[in-house]
Design brief:
2 copies of one chain form a homodimer.
Chain A (H helix, E strand, L loop, with lengths): L11 H8 L5 H10 L4 H7 L5 H13 L3 E6 L5 E6 L1 H14 L3
Antiparallel strand pairs in A: 1-2
The structure holds a DNA duplex (30 and 30 nucleotides).
DNA sequence: GCCAATGGTCAAGAATTTTTGACTAATTGA
DNA sequence: TCAATTAGTCAAAAATTCTTGACCATTGGC
């Protein structure tokens, strides 16, 4: 059915919550925190996940400017996803949340 | 099917994200920010919502200690939901997020 | 007593999200 | 050349979440 898309994020935090919602995004974000992540590596580590789910999550997180996609043209030629500047700026605040969750 | 409940929130922020996920919780949280909210009032204001959805959201948010449920025994005898202390402490951090979303 | 409002519960169906599995295409090692 | 690895896409099925609509109990006004 048609979604009327009534609220263009009248609340900024609500938008952010949605950007990090879903079954795998928080974990992907967290892994990216530790260093660059790769498609198949995520698939192996996130037990119970699927190619589809990982692909969609990565694509959306990239569009939302939470992570950056980089094609590494050397040696084994692969793709790396790293936390973007925006992603990193969120981490600072997440750390504060940890102390009072 | 059985859910194995594998990760008992290895990441505190992930738990919080889940507590505020769902179609109505963010909006209920936001409304509670402005003052006590009531069941039927939410139902009227949140267009497209349902008794069921509101009831479940309120119940879960109460269990998660985000809001407090209070039976007001006077005058028209009703129930009020207000932001709990924990709820209020989160607001401070959400305000910071607003500046860099 | 009757009717409306408050604050729910429950079962069923609709909608959304996620998983499964088949398939693709380029790169690399042997 | 063959096989494996990487990084995907797509359609369909399964699982989860949400809405609909019926129902219920208490309070309050008239």
């Amino acid at each position: 059915m048609e979604e009327i898309e009534s609220d263009p994020a009248q609340c900024p935090v609500e938008g952010l919550l949605k950007q990090l919602s879903g079954k795998w995004k928080p974990q992907i974000f967290r892994m990216a925190l530790a260093g660059p992540v790769r498609f198949n590596a995520l698939l192996r580590v996130l037990e119970g996940s699927s190619k589809q789910a990982i692909a969609v999550a990565l694509k959306e997180m990239e569009q939302q400017n939470l992570i950056d996609k980089k094609v590494i043209k050397l040696k084994p030629l692969h793709i790396e996803y790293t936390l973007s500047e925006r992603g990193k700026s969120l981490v600072v605040i997440f750390r504060q949340l940890e102390h009072l969750v």
